[in-house]
Design goal:
Blueprint: H1 6-18, E1 25-26, H2 27-36, H3 41-53, E2 57-62, E3 65-70, H4 72-87, E4 98-103, H5 110-122, E5 126-129, E6 132-135, H6 140-150, E7 156-161, H7 170-176, H8 179-193, H9 201-215, H10 218-221, H11 233-249, H12 251-263
Antiparallel strand pairs: 1-3, 2-3, 4-6, 4-7, 5-6
Length: about 270
């Protein structure tokens, strides 16, 4: 996880261990857990402070200790993420209805344009050309809400339809998404985790967290195309099965370690 940023890792920890229980979590425990992945105390505290500024964490003081609660914004983002992560590749997708988004967000709204692109990719959209995005799903509700949230609905158009059977659609799909790279990523994921045999609770926690963090990148790059448009659909099938098997199998020991660190309070310090 050499290229992982501490803020991103905190989001993974919150999604896997805090959000499901709607709990608060001790700041010192989060700092210690980030340290187990190689991050310094300073880097960990800076990451937590930035998540507070992004309105994703709300600090709550208990004496000299500080706990963090998820904000409504964080809860909504994690719930959206869970829907994408845990449904990805579980059922065959026939792509009966596609969504096409066209937008011309003006240059002075660059931040909104960038956010729109990131959120569209997380929803499985691919970019055909500048300002034109496609998805093999009916995403009308999600995209309409996103355009409204970012205040750019007046600069966009949204269409629903089906690819024409008279034209080979695979070339356009390959232009919108790098499907060969996607298959390679799934193969690399399976190779990294297929032999995972954690020795204890801490090792289970580290393995499960790395597993989730690696897998949560796939919704950004996998549009869940029908198998006939994928170069090697079996790569995704194997990776998805492995993820769910390990995620469930390691839950209890991983959670034991997370709880021991974040509720033990063996280091009594102010955040």
């Amino acid at each position: 996880m050499d290229d992982v940023q501490p803020q991103d890792l905190v989001i993974t920890l919150l999604g896997a261990y805090v959000h499901p229980r709607e709990a608060t979590v001790w700041s010192g425990g989060l700092v210690q857990l980030l340290g187990e992945f190689g991050f310094s105390t300073g880097a960990a505290r800076v990451a937590l402070a930035r998540l507070v500024r992004r309105d994703l964490l709300e600090p709550r003081r208990d004496g000299r200790l500080v706990h963090y609660a998820l904000t409504p914004r964080a809860t909504a983002l994690l719930a959206e993420g869970d829907r994408r992560i845990f449904s990805l590749g579980r059922e065959p997708h026939r792509a009966e209805l596609w969504t096409v988004l066209w937008h011309a967000v003006p240059p002075d709204r660059r931040l909104a344009r960038d956010r729109l692109g990131r959120r569209l990719r997380f929803l499985g959209f691919g970019s055909v050309q500048d300002g034109t995005w496609i998805s093999p799903h009916d995403r009308e509700r999600e995209v309409a809400a996103l355009l409204d949230e970012l205040g750019v609905a007046e600069h966009a158009g949204l269409l629903l339809g089906r690819p024409a059977a008279s034209v080979d659609f695979r070339s356009l799909a390959a232009r919108a998404w790098d499907l060969e790279d996607l298959s390679g990523r799934y193969r690399a994921f399976a190779a990294a985790f297929r032999r995972a045999r954690p020795r204890d609770d801490r090792d289970a926690f580290l393995t499960r967290t790395r597993l989730v963090h690696a897998f949560r990148q796939f919704p950004f790059v996998d549009p869940e195309l029908p198998d006939e448009l994928m170069p090697a659909p079996e790569d995704r099938t194997r990776a998805v099965a492995l993820f769910h098997d390990l995620y469930d199998r390691l839950e209890i020991p991983a959670r034991r370690h997370f709880d021991a660190v974040t509720t033990g309070y063996t280091i009594r310090e102010a955040a």
